[in-house]
Design goal:
Elements (H helix, E strand, L loop, with lengths): L2 E7 L6 H11 L5 H13 L15 H6 L6 E6 L4 E6 L7 H8 L4 E7 L6 H12 L4 E7 L8 H17 L7 E5 L23 H7 L13 E7 L11 E5 L5 E2 L3 E5 L3 E10 L2 E3 L1 E2 L4 E6 L10 E4 L5 E12 L10 E6 L2 E14 L6 E2 L10 E14 L10 E6 L5 E7 L1
Parallel strand pairs: 1-3, 1-4, 4-5, 5-6
Antiparallel strand pairs: 2-3, 7-8, 7-15, 8-14, 9-13, 10-11, 10-15, 11-12, 11-14, 16-20, 16-22, 17-18, 17-21, 18-19, 18-20, 21-22
């Protein structure tokens, strides 16, 4: 069954967790014991309705404060599709958590409180989706019941959001606006009679029509080698294969390839999926490849088509979201983890911080603090094969690992 990964974002009290809980309830995805716990807790709080936010807020601090702190992953299925929802926090101090949750998502739901409209945090949520190149964004204008399901209010929010779209790299067709009430379920799973002026689909109907495979941009074939396969059985004494996951494009038997960073060349001889041979491997496939020539390849090398070589350089410039309590300063050493490659690197220069409201860069700053995003130049100890993030998400992103503590300190998106 097709799987769609979705990130959610919203300001405090926009009803994000309630919306997810409503989807789970209306699709009958809540277990009996979970539903009983929600009913009991709702009664204890004196509510005359079910508090669906309890379906996702798992931490004690989240339940007590009524906010989302950590990234929670929620799984549910319909007859058409399976879903993984990353319920990410909206607070500015948890920007790193939102980046983590949205980094692997194929679509995103941004909640806007119908009473408050587009606020500062809405700008930041949309900016991060634009930074991460999340292809489809759904703007769920929530709490429509508190503005009497006003068409004028809904259209006003759409107009305000349009100003953000014009500053981004998004196209109109990739942004969808839906008026909803998560608490009462209007236009979430079932069409609401209270919005006769809205002719679009419900939230779930829209998600059902998104095609997961179409959310990956076509790119050039990249095959980072995870391991070299050398069976110890006598019948496979001469077998030498290279196992990994194929990104971007397809590879086929007979393709002329180049191995990076050595730049040695050969042709694909065989493609295996476990013990079966195939003539072609599609993007996203985990497979084993053998070559016509016995050349030196090890973990961390990359196999590409000879006419589709990526950049091979010892220096890169990237947008970095900083996730460490210790500030990022020029001259500090880190490991750059890109795919299966881990390379010692030094932060050469910080060009400045990037405002998450699309207002530009502050070039006066040469440090990055926790949750800030900036433009950083990094010097590598050896050449790295990579693509720009906008062309290939997998090979255009990396994490910075503290060389002393081994903590993940930041995530980068190569320009």
């Amino acid at each position: 069954m097709e799987v769609l990964k979705i990130a959610t974002a919203g300001s405090v009290d926009d009803g994000k967790s309630t919306l997810i809980g409503r989807i789970l309830y209306d699709t009958q995805s809540l277990t009996t014991d979970k539903l009983e716990a929600i009913e009991k807790s709702s009664k204890q709080k004196g509510f005359d309705y079910l508090d669906f936010s309890l379906a996702t807020d798992g931490l004690v601090a989240e339940r007590e404060q009524g906010i989302t702190i950590d990234v929670a992953h929620i799984y549910f299925s319909t007859q058409k599709k399976s879903y993984i929802i990353a319920d990410t926090p909206g607070h500015i101090e948890y920007t790193r958590n939102m980046v983590t949750g949205a980094s692997t998502s194929q679509a995103s739901i941004i909640l806007v409180d119908a009473r408050n409209g587009v606020v500062e945090q809405t700008n930041r949520h949309f900016f991060i989706n634009n930074l991460l190149r999340v292809k489809d964004v759904i703007v769920a204008v929530n709490k429509m019941d508190l503005v009497d399901f006003s068409k004028e209010k809904f259209e006003s929010i759409k107009a305000d959001f349009q100003a953000l779209i014009e500053k981004s790299s998004y196209k109109e067709q990739n942004i969808t606006f839906i008026p909803v009430s998560a608490l009462s379920g209007d236009n979430v799973v079932e069409k609401s009679e209270k919005t006769p002026w809205y002719s679009g689909k419900t939230l779930l109907e829209h998600l059902e029509e998104l095609k997961g495979q179409d959310l990956y941009e076509e790119a050039q074939a990249r095959f980072p080698v995870q391991t070299v396969v050398r069976p110890k059985q006598a019948e496979f004494h001469d077998f030498r294969g290279y196992a990994g996951k194929l990104y971007g494009g397809d590879l086929a038997v007979g393709d002329e390839i180049t191995v990076l960073p050595s730049l040695t060349t050969s042709k694909i001889k065989e493609i295996y999926f476990f013990d079966q041979k195939f003539d072609k491997a599609g993007r996203g496939s985990s497979c084993t490849i053998t070559l016509e020539d016995n050349i030196n390849i090890s973990r961390g090398d990359m196999i590409v088509k000879s006419e589709e070589k990526p950049r091979l350089e010892k220096q890169l410039t990237a947008k970095v979201c900083w996730m460490d309590n210790r500030n990022l300063v020029p001259g500090t050493n880190y490991f750059v983890q890109n795919g299966s490659n881990r390379i010692l690197a030094k932060v050469k220069q910080i060009h400045g911080t990037i405002a998450t409201d699309f207002s530009g860069e502050d070039t006066s700053k040469n440090t990055l603090t926790l949750n800030e995003i900036g433009k950083v130049q990094i010097q590598l100890s050896k050449p790295l094969a990579f693509d720009a993030y906008e062309n290939n998400k997998a090979l255009g992103s990396f994490i910075l690992i503290d060389a002393q503590t081994n903590n993940t300190s930041g995530v980068g998106f190569i320009e």
